[in-house]
Design brief:
By secondary structure, the protein is an alpha/beta fold. It is built from 11 helices and 10 strands. The protein has a single domain, classed as Aldolase class I (TIM Barrel, Alpha-Beta Barrel), CATH 3.20.20.70. Bound molecules: ligand PBG and zinc ion (ZN).
Length: 326
Amino acid sequence: MFKRFRRLRMNDTLRNLVQENVLSKDDFIYPLFVIEGENIKNEIKSMPEVFQMSIDIILKECEYLQKIGLNSIILFAIPKLKDSIGSECLDEQSLISRTIKAIKKEFPLMFIVTDLCFCEYTNHGHCGIIDPKTKSVHNDKTLEISAIQALIHAQAGADMIAPSGMMDGIIRTLRTALDENGFENLPIMAYSSKFASGYYGPFAQVAQSAPSYGDRKTYQMNPANRLEAINESLADEEEGADILMVKPALAFLDIIRDIRNNSKLPLAAYNVSGEYSMLKLAQKAGFIDYERVMMETLLGFKRAGANIIISYHAKEAIEILNKNKV
Ligand code: PBG
Ligand code: ZN
């Protein structure tokens, strides 16, 4: 006798009954990029259908997103002014503050996550203040200004803060600053296992945040390391993170599973720019059944152990999920 696995694959209803993982529109956070100006919608060459948008266009986009049931976004701002410490984002009049307020005014139920980093705001493109001695990012000085940036986001009305700079102690620093200023109920999603990855390439083009010299290897993790990813995540949990994250997602599915098995916190997978571009460009070339490959990829993140998926595919994925609903 042998086991007949095919018995449970004989029709859709039965296959659905025994399906172990599902995608839902509630799983997604959709990245949006805001720039100064009016009526601006610049498509990114390496990321078809992803745009830099001015605030007025972002509002139109939010209206559509809510209509299809996409209620969570992560905001990245691309400011006009860049300097050595990223002053633009340390001011109440910053682009991201104005964007948060504008969205919240028209769409109070839109859940706004803010990416907290300095690479979009600094003229050197690194994720914090540069230590002139080492030419690398100064950890503790960057912590100080990160706390200021977090309060700017919180005061503008952000619903969750997501620090992405990979500074040590960032979660404890932000938790303390938020708590001391009456934001004890504002959650922090830690970019807890963020690898120094080539998959961020297209993002650097959208966010104009490529480092002008060197790389990010002194703060982001070595893609070869697995135990370190678990250690980073557990440290962020201990410092007070509410949600953990693995980034990138596709080449790091084992890490998603490792974190899932080592922590009880909710876990996000960041399906990054390069992962999006690969599928989009294969679609444009006619080489793959894009929708099928996209949904299979996203489902893979759930199967690996993620609860939340941050993805440039989110809008298309939800459109597909809405169509298939009975
Ligand atoms: C900022 C930041 C980056 C991404 C998210 N936040 C770029 C980087 O760390 O180099 C990457 C997102 C993507 O590639 O989609 N630190
Ligand atoms: Zn950064």
